[in-house]
């Protein structure tokens, strides 16, 4: 019961309660990978999808017990994908597929792997560029994001910097649905994300009800955030609407 409750709390974004629930189960039955993985996942979401040494230690402990634990490998893959380490993401997800586990969504994993492969290809061929991205046809589902930078960080931006913008689903696998880029010299600027800036695979922005939007002003020309870059995020945008995003956090 506590195990199911823990997963329910994760779904409800009540991460402290989820962590407590998994700890309660481990008090009763001892540490197991299938409990450590969900606990690490709850901690990861609580930390704003940032990997911490404490979370990594739990992941390492879980995989030492069971190198094929699905919940732990899903987390490793998701975090690797977000950090643009697509090879590691694919390896993690493929390990789950190669196992004999029946309690996993194999179709979703295959779609995630396909998306990661497409992103690796995009690393060399480039992402859709909003400067040349044609506006979506009337009636097409999209999100328009008005991007600005906070006054206190404006002086740290250079016209040579690149802003990467991507939207990912608020439900299900946290894989990007669409992405674009624009020169920082255009700030403040409005970009449009839709299926024409999609990442490939079956998951499409037009099929989502809402998305999370993240923007990274990169001083290194890389979508993976690095020290000195400036980020901004909108937790939820309804598809079809317009929202304002402020670049207000410098990566340390």
From TrEMBL:
Q: Which residues cross the membrane?
A: none
Describe the location of the Cytochrome c-type biogenesis protein H Ig-like domain by residue ranges.
144-244
**Annotated Gene Ontology cellular component terms:** plasma membrane
Cite a single Pfam family from the UniProt record: Ig_CycH
Domain annotation Cytochrome c-type biogenesis protein H TPR: ranges: 1-98
Matching entries from InterPro entries are given as: C-type_cytochrome_biogenesis, Ig_CycH, TPR-like_helical_dom_sf, TPR_CcmH_CycH, TPR_rpt
* TPR repeat ranges per the UniProt record: 1-32
Q: Where is the signal peptide?
A: none
Enumerate the UniProt keywords alphabetically. Answer: Repeat, TPR repeat
**Which PANTHER family does this chain map to?**
CYTOCHROME C-TYPE BIOGENESIS PROTEIN CCMH (PTHR47870), CYTOCHROME C-TYPE BIOGENESIS PROTEIN CYCH (PTHR47870:SF4)
Please identify the protein, giving its name as recorded: NrfG-like protein
Corresponding gene?
A: OrfH
């Amino acid at each position: 019961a506590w195990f199911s409750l823990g997963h329910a709390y994760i779904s409800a974004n009540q991460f402290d309660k989820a962590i407590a629930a998994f700890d309660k189960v481990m008090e009763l039955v001892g540490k197991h990978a299938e409990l450590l993985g969900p606990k690490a996942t709850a901690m990861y979401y609580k930390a704003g999808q940032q990997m911490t040494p404490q979370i990594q230690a739990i992941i390492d402990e879980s995989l030492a017990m069971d190198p094929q634990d699905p919940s732990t490998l899903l987390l490793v893959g998701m975090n690797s994908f977000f950090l643009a380490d697509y090879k590691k993401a694919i390896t993690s997800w493929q390990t789950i597929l190669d196992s004999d586990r029946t309690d996993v969504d194999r179709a979703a994993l295959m779609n995630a792997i396909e998306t990661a492969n497409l992103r690796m290809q995009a690393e060399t061929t480039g992402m859709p560029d909003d400067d040349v991205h044609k506006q979506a046809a009337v009636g097409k589902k999209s999100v328009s994001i008005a991007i600005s930078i906070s006054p206190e960080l404006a002086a740290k931006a250079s016209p040579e910097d690149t802003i990467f913008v991507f939207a990912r689903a608020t439900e299900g696998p946290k894989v990007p649905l669409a992405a674009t880029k624009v020169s920082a010299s255009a700030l403040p600027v409005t970009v449009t994300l839709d299926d024409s800036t999609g990442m490939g695979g079956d998951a499409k922005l037009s099929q989502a009800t809402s998305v999370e939007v993240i923007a990274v002003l990169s001083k290194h020309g890389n979508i993976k955030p690095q020290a000195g870059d400036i980020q901004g995020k909108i937790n939820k945008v309804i598809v079809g609407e317009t929202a304002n995003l402020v670049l207000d956090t410098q990566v340390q």
